[in-house]
Amino acid sequence: MATEASADSLPDTPGAGRPVPEAEPELVERWRSRGGELVDLLTDVRERLGGVAAFRIGPAPTVLVTGPAAVQHVLAHHPDAYVKRSHRARLLVGDGVLSATGEAWKRQRRVLHAQFTGTGMRRYEERITGAARTTAERWAEYARTGRTFDVRREMHRFALDSIWRSLTGYALDDETEDRLASVTAVVAALPTLPSDAADAREAVAADLARIDAVAGCAIEAARRGVSGPDGPGLLRVLLDAAGEHPEYTEALVRDELVTLLVAGHETTATTLTWLYLLLDRHPGHREQALAAGAEGSAPRRRAIQALIHETLRLYPSAWILPRHAARADTLTGYAVEAGTDLLVCPYLTHRDPALWPDPERFDPRRFTTPDGRPTRPGSYLPFGLGPRACLGAQFALRETTVLLEHLLPAHTVAFDSVPTKTSYGITVRPEGPTPATLRTPRT
C-alpha cells in the first residue's frame, strides 16, 4: 500500500508540492458498474494510493484524506483554509450551529460551548441519569414479561429523552416521541432526496411540519417561563441569547433547537445500537467490562468507556467530513489547488492497519492497555477534530456511559435477527430492524 508523504517533506506553502496521486478512471468505472456504496470506492482509493489521494466522479478531482498527519493538517491546524460549505442536513437544521459557517458559526458556538463542558455538563447530569433510569425500568419490564422489543428504537428513545430533558426540563412523553420520529425519518431520507432544494423540501414537507410544530410549542412555553420539573434547560439559554444578540431570530432559535435534537440523539442512538450488536458477536467483552471493578467504580467506568470508544472506532459518529479548499495549500507535501473538494474519512483512518493492527476486530482493550492505540494526532477522531469538532462529544460520551452502567449488569441482549446491511448516510447505521429479548445474566 502507498504510504502518506512525510509532513516535513516539503514546506506547507501554496504551490510547493507534488501532485496528489489520482486513481485511474477504470477504478471508478468498476465501482460504478458494481453499484457500490461511496465507502467502497474510498476504500479502494485509500488502499491503492495511501492517506492523501484523489479520484474523479465528476469533472474535477476530489481529494480523500485519511492519513493522520493530513487529517490533523486539514481539521486542526488549518481550518480556515479547509472550510465547510453547505451541509447535507441544512434542509432540516437550517442555519443551526451544525451547518453555519464563518462569523455566524463562531458566534453560535460561543453561545453553546459553555453548556457542554465542565460546569455546564454538570447541569444536565441528573437529567441524563433520569433518562437512563426510565430506560432501565422499561427493560426490567421487558425481561419480566419476555417481550420482544427493537433495540435500535430503544436507543433512540433513550437518547431523545436525554436531550429533550436537557432542552426543556421535561421527560419525553409518548406523544412528543411520536411527533419527533419525524427527525429520524428526515435524517434517514437525506441521502436519497432530490438535488433540487425545493423538490427535496417538498418530499419531506409533512415531517418538517411536525418537527416545526413541536419546536414551536417548546419555544413558546420556554418564552412564557414554563419549564419542566428539572427546571429550565438549553432552550432557555437560546432564548437568553436572543435577548442579547439580534441575529438570534425566531427562525435561528428554531434551527438551533432542531440541531441539538438531531446531533443530540441520532449519533448516540446509533453508537449504542452498534455496541449491542458487537457485544452479541463478542459477549466476552461485556463480562470483562463488568469484572473490571465494582458497580460505580472508576475501573468499571473506564472499561465501559473502552467499549464505547472501540465501537466509535469502528463506527465513528462522523464517518465522513467534507471540506473545501478556500485557498491553495500544500498538504503533507502535496499541492492542493483553491476550490478543491476534500473528504476527510475517519471511518477509513480508524480501519488503517498501519495504525490499528487487525483493524476489523472488535477489541476494547485497545483503549485500556498501554500502547493499545496509536498516539499520533489524527489517528482517532470519532467526533471530528479541531474547532469544528462535535460540540456535544462529552454529552454523548456521558449519556452513553450512564446508560450502560444501568443496563449492562442487569441484562444480556439476545437478538432474534440482526441487520445484514450497513447504511452510509449522515451516520453509519445498521440497516433494518433489531428485534431482541432480554436474559438475566448468570451470576
List the secondary-structure elements in sequence, H or E.
Answer: EHHEEHEHHHHEHHHHHHHHEEEEHHEEEE
Shape-level CATH architecture: Orthogonal Bundle
At the first level of CATH, the class is Mainly Alpha
- CATH topology, by name, is Cytochrome p450
Q: Which stretches are low in confidence, meaning pLDDT under 50 for 5 or more residues running?
A: 1-11
Q: Which structural class do the helices and strands define? A: alpha+beta
Describe the protein.
This protein is α+β, with helices and mostly antiparallel strands and 443 residues long. The chain has one domain: Cytochrome P450 (Cytochrome p450, Orthogonal Bundle). Helices cover 50% and strands 10% of the residues. It is built from 17 helices and 13 strands. Helix 8 packs antiparallel against helix 13 and helix 13 packs across helix 17. The N terminus is likely disordered.
Layout of SSEs?
Elements (H helix, E strand, L loop, with lengths): L17 E2 L5 H10 L3 H12 L2 E4 L6 E4 L2 H10 L4 E2 L6 H4 L8 H12 L5 H4 L2 H21 L3 E2 H18 L5 H16 L7 H7 L1 H19 L10 H11 L5 H32 L2 H8 L6 H17 L6 E5 L3 E3 L2 E3 L4 E4 L1 H4 L43 H15 L4 E4 L5 E4 L3 E4 L3 E5 L4
Give a quick precis of the structure:
The chain has 443 residues and is of the alpha+beta class. It contains 17 helices and 13 strands. α13 crosses α17.
